[in-house]
Give the backbone structure.
Amino acid sequence: MSVDKFSAIFDGLKEAYGTFKVENKQANGKNTGRAGLVRQPRTKDLWEKHLQGKFGIGIIPINEDNSCRWGCIDIDQYPLDHKALVDNIAKLEFPMVVCRSKSGGAHCFLFTKDWVPAVDMQKTLQHISAALGYSGSEIFPKQIKLHLDRGDVGNFLNLPYFNAEEGLRYAIKDDGSSATLEEFFELYDQRVIDRDELLGLQSKEKAQEFMKDGPPCLQILCQQKISEGGRNNGLFNLGVYLRKAFPDSYETEILTYNATYLAPPLPLNEVNLVAKQLDKKDYAYKCTDAPINAHCNKDLCRTRKHGVGVGTHGAPIANLRKYNSVPPVWFLDVNGEPLELDTDALLSQALFQKACMEQLNFMPPTSKKIDWEARIAGLLNEMKEDETAVIEVAQDASTSGQFYDFLDEFCHHQQKAEDKEEILLRRPWADEDKNLTYFRLKDFEAHLRKNKFFEYKSHKIAQRLRDINGESVTLRIKNRVVRVWAVPFFNTDALELKSTKFDAGESPF
């Protein structure tokens, strides 16, 4: 019964699941190891082995219909005071269950009674993470839509209660102690919500009246009061808001805000220094700096009259994945939605913007070339560390696989020549004694063009034919010497494709 309830709570994508093998522990306590993706349905036996501590699994929360029944904020901070986190969540009245992650961080789960759109779950968790002070933490589901037809199955999260009896991935009760599996079920029953309640969690932050036209990060910080270590940056960002909201009296307002929302207030000379900085230039918010970065909620901020503005920051892009075809196809989440790109569009910001407009009906603002290249380089580095980010393709999905499929179709399924003379009628002729098929290159090229395959020019077609031991020969047909290709009989299912390297400067398509 425990297995059935646990698997129902953490239901997700049916056709794949994740695995993780711990290999070592870093100095900060974080466990590292090898992640893997298994592309087949889960069985009850797998769930049982997870709870028994024999085989850990991870689940992709977004399903085939782009919906989910749970989401998670992955707080990757070490060491972490789990009791303080639970207290803060309770104070803010978020119906979440906090579990210790495999590395000692926290997985803050939000559960719904029925399947809800992944976009609703993701947006709600973004609001909650900002309110908790963990903006920038990973949020699952990472995607709001999957390209399952292209092999893109999204990202998985390692589940709690691996080795349920003795393991360390347990839920945290209100008193800070560990919860048994049965106690976790009780926490789940107490805190699972419906979709209307889920959407209501988003509106909680929007409903705040104080500074309602300003950045939500400053709303949160002012309610908590900005303490030592963050006061100068905090007051500077308050000053940016005040310049926008009170252009004629911001110097007076900044004194009031300093006295009211900083604990303790900054000395007058430091307040005057901030005011002078603001007077020299129309500064923007320092969204990436403490203390406001921990509470950043860009989507909500862009809707505010005195927020960051729609065009101030680039589009949120994350989770680069590579579909390992030839040529490769890339998937990049833009505002949580997967965008399909070729390599040129990944390198060129203009082509990236064009792809966003065509696929997502969205025009991201232009960044400096050096900033764009740094963002892509960072995403590539993250991708290298995630073994599940490279999606291996079936042979028939690659360019070479498609080529050999068309060759097989031409040789075996076209109208065949009864004798070699009919090669002149554009038909392939099979010499069963020699186990060879003969055809003219131009006839095979016409077959490729008919099927809209334009990736290879003639010399590359010839190279691919040589890769399967084909050769260019001559036949005497009706007193004429005819140049043809002789290709051994082959089965595309058993064919091992070679990786052909072309000369420098040549394009493979």
